[in-house]
Sequence to fold (310 residues):
Amino acid sequence: MRTVFMGTPEFAVTPLRHLVVNSYEVAAVYTRPDRPAGRGRGLAASPVKRAALELGLPVVQPASLKPAEVVEALAALKPEVIVVAAYGRILPQAVLDLPPHGCVNIHPSLLPRFRGASPVPAAILAGDEFTGVSIMLMDAGLDTGPVLNRGCIPISPRDNAGSLMVKLSQVAAGLLQEALVGWSRRELTPRPQDEAQATCCGEITKEQGEIDWHLSALELSRRVRAFTPWPGCYTRWRGRRLIVQEAVALPGDGQSGRVVALDREEAALGVYAGSGVLGLVTVQPEGGRAMPAAEFLRGHKELIGAALPG
Fold:
């Protein structure tokens, strides 16, 4: 089946590779334009672009899919299906109408739960025990199209958004293969989503990463997991950021934001929250490397008793 693939982040790489391994004719890979990154602010290619070039596939990076000349160039590729995986662009109706088998989207949630831009962090923030991947036919709405198939996996208490996304990417690759084969043979019946069960999630901002110590330790532990690796959950000490990469919710009662020593194997120090104590397991000082909280504490014993902002 002649395919055009559209995707940008690491999540989309495994499904793309899976298409190539299974001998799909990938006519082109569309991805977001290179963006400034790092301290030097040099242009960096997306993970999908790097993978596509490694696989010897043509790469197209339009700033928008709306211009007529962009749609015409896409039509000239004569795709039978367009596969979309976290591309980061809205597909206009002119593009949705191009392929005879439609545009197939890989969405990392159990639709209609968590439509939108951040379904994986949203599932962790909600305390869900399970999440999954939905393969759906795209329409003009935001993740509202009928579902071809889907798969479900448990969310481990130690999963963060990064580790969970890796698992879902593997699930997505297999589900995509099943969906494309079944849909091309008309062996699958698309199932409309139940609008009464629909929930949405917006984009995550950098500002959401700053810790509010008035929240419960349980909610803060979920935020640490949901916002790792991006934007990172952080507090401030002595005017510099201290990123919390791994934490655990523990019982305790004290002044919100006050740092205490803990005699626990998994967490050497903790911070009182609105209820409970957030035990810090792994931290990263601004400009430094990630390290066990016990190691950080050995060099900064004066942190104990400090009152953190928020």
